[in-house]
Design goal:
This protein is of the alpha/beta class. It contains 8 helices and 9 strands. A hairpin with a 4-residue loop joins strand 8 and strand 9.
Amino acid sequence: QGKFTLLRDTRTDGSFLVHHFLSFYLRAGCKVCFVALLQSFSHYNIVAQKLGVSLTAAKERGQLVFLEGLKSCLDLLFGEEEEQSGQPSPLQFISESASNLKALFDFVRTSLTPAGSDSWKGPVLLVDDLSVLLSLGATPVAVLDFIHYCRVAVCSQLKGNIVVLVHSNEDSDDEENELVVNSLCHHSDLILWVEGLATGFCKDVHGQIKIIRRVSLELTAEQDVIQIYQYKIQDKNVTFFARGLSAAVL
């Protein structure tokens, strides 16, 4: 509880980790607020069904609060967004001159603040993917402020967890995105960094994952614990193995 997990991908797609955490927390009985900026609800629902979870059922019983970013953006841009219960759209900043993510934070806080009848184990904020906010016009400072306030509200006050996916490319000219990624790395309790193979595409090894446990955050003299595995994505699960020890090699 109270942990901030950063999912980072470079030269590959790390969304399989988002699907894992989404189904994991729903099965564990946690209240989940999913800020989905990259894909539609039906996309996440189809993948979740393969993993044995129904997002539709989770929404109906109040366990999952789903923000469909693609739909909200279109509604805002074409003036079709309807204010729900007098509240502005969570992505209101798109149509305003000021880059202010307060409405999005208010949406997250309201969604995860437990009501009297709630019996969920703990609140979880899941964001896929944070880099999209920069593409929509938010400044790096606004994005980092949003994450900071979410950490205070979700991790510190509500004793919940936050899982955020960001895309990164160290050779990129997108300085704003790299600034956000590097800043988040310094604040994360756990970093799952998915990278494509330096040698290119391989049928039996889809990439490698670097697991960084930030022991140094606890103000001890210990070094961060780093483990590196390679992986292969299958239809309903992912196989992990030590580097160079895939079934194809052995």
